[in-house]
Amino acid sequence: MDISIKPIITERATKLSEKRNCYTFRVSPDANKYQIKALVEQIYGVKVLSVNTAVMRAKNKSRWTKSGLLRGKTAEWKKAFITVAPDQTIEFFSNI
């Protein structure tokens, strides 16, 4: 199974990383905590202390166009909160 992982860079996620050493990622909906932990340790070379996940529900969207009202839904996705060891950090912009 192929697991995708992308960092979330927002003001709230940055505050979490500064205060609690906790980083936020958007992961595949079918990935479990053990797979996420192994992937983050492998990619970023840090020791992961804990992994918390949250499933972000799909939202209804609608908009008016020339052809009438279009209704749809956004996709459901999973967010992972990764806490790393106190002496380690993850640098997202180190290779720029």
Provide structural commentary:
The protein has 96 residues and is α+β, with helices and mostly antiparallel strands. It has one domain (5-62, 71-84): 2-Layer Sandwich (Alpha-Beta Plaits), CATH 3.30.70. 23% of the residues lie in helices and 40% in strands. The protein contains two helices and six strands. The chain has helices spanning 11-20, 33-44; strands at 5-7, 22-27, 48-56, 60-65, 68-73, 77-84. The strands form two sheets. The chain has a four-stranded antiparallel beta sheet. The protein has a two-stranded antiparallel sheet with strand order 4-5. It is elongated. It starts with a strand and ends in a 12-residue tail after the last strand. The model has no long low-confidence stretch (mean pLDDT 93).
